[in-house]
Amino acid sequence: MRRRNTTILVVACLLIGTLTAVGIGVALSRTGRSGPTPEHPIAGKPIALPVTLYLAHPPGSRFLISANDAQTVATVMWHLWENARVHGDTRALTQLVANPLRTSEVYQCTCALPAPVSPYAILTEVPLQQAYPLYFLSEIITQYSVATQSSPQYGMELQIITKARPSAPWQLSLATGYDEVDGSQPPPVSMNSVPVAPVPPSPISYSYNPPPNTPSIVPASQYLPMLAAYWQSWKTTGHAPQNSIFTDDGGTSGFGTQIAQSPQDQYDQYDFHVDPSYPQWDFSGSSGQAMVCGTVVDTSKNMANPGALIQNANRKNWGMQLPQGAYYSIFTQTIHQTCVLPSGNKLDAYGTEGSPISIKGQLMQ
Q: What is the CATH architecture of 220-363?
């Protein structure tokens, strides 16, 4: 069973392997600043983005982004993103990450990570695209060591990297992932790749992710709304809906069991839904059926019962965005980024990680 790999976010890692980030000619500056704080979350100096984060073929080309270019961009992005998070360079994160993920990344970085995680392997899936905005999927297998484990542990990170227009840099728009319960190397998402011969002929061949060509068990446009309703059922009833279309797995029933441990009641209310203003990205799975990556939004309202909801001085109780104080109620908007793909006659979800993008409250006088 898969689960979300949170271990790499909270333990000191022993880096295994060496990352060669082609085209990076700038070190992140960490001198001359005190670091981000909840009141001033943007800290650090802007970085000079390497030319590799602008890679693309000219408009009108048959291939606006090649699989080889995507591999280079994904490698450079991982290196810069990890280092910015580790060192609390939130100014750099504003350059590297697109909204809505950017807000949560900036606030998570007020508590810097212990060490960057080195990728064990990076795989990319690139749809054949002739128009902007461009996007591709990066699957990063991470390998790290934990003091309590005798063997290396593995995780799978899923990232959608996007380019809004020819002059814009590539940015990180989705970041989620999963691992195996026993720490073994998780398999990548099963995708459909086809070779495309270049024009004019050359020794280099390209592989692309084609459009879906097999009907899905439900329309792909319903994947994310159905997942939101599925998670909502766990929160409100403690179990999956009857005759659920979702398979039992880490990102489905595993996450459902987790959120059911704090069920909804009259004082704590939750609404899992899909916001149409958030982007989604389509791919073709190995069966030719559609895979959809995007965002499920969880809007929660927590009310005092009967005293007050307390945010402590170090902002650990309710997250870094909410100032210290006593509150009647607290409203949180959390994004869960995921990819949904058919699995047999069911649907499966890859990744569930929650990232708060807004935390507000009604203070007691």
A: Roll (3.10)
**Integer angstrom CA distances of residue 355 from 52, 146, 297, 335, 359:** 28, 24, 10, 5, 11
* Cα separation, 83 vs 89, whole angstroms: 8
How many angstroms separate the CA atoms of 190 and 109, rounded?
32
State how far the Cα of 20 lies from the Cα of 28, in Å rounded to an integer.
16
> Is it the case that residue 329 has pLDDT exceeding 60?
yes
Kindly give the residue spans of alpha helices, DSSP state H, lying in the chain.
Answer: 7-10, 67-86, 90-96, 101-108, 223-237, 255-260
- Given a contact cutoff of 8 angstroms between Cβ atoms, the answer to whether 123 and 59 are in contact is no
Do 322 and 361 touch, CB atoms closer than 8 A?
A: yes
> HSE (CB half, 13 Å, CA atoms) of 114?
12
Question: Across all residues in the chain, what is the average pLDDT?
Answer: 85
Give the span between the Cα atoms of 197 and 160, in whole angstroms.
25
Question: How does pLDDT run across 32-84, given as a tens digit for each residue?
Answer: 345 778 888 898 889 999 999 999 998 888 789 988 899 999 999 999 999 89
- Using CA atoms, how far apart are residues 188 and 283, in angstroms rounded to an integer? 14
The domain ranges of the chain are 2-208, 220-363
Evaluate whether 267 touches 302 at the Cβ level (below 8 Å).
yes
| Strand stretches in the chain, DSSP E | 2-3, 119-125, 134-144, 153-163, 171-180, 194-196, 206-208, 268-273, 281-284, 290-303, 309-311, 325-343, 346-350, 354-363
DSSP assignment of 154-180: EEEEEEEEEE-STTSPPEEEEEEEEEE
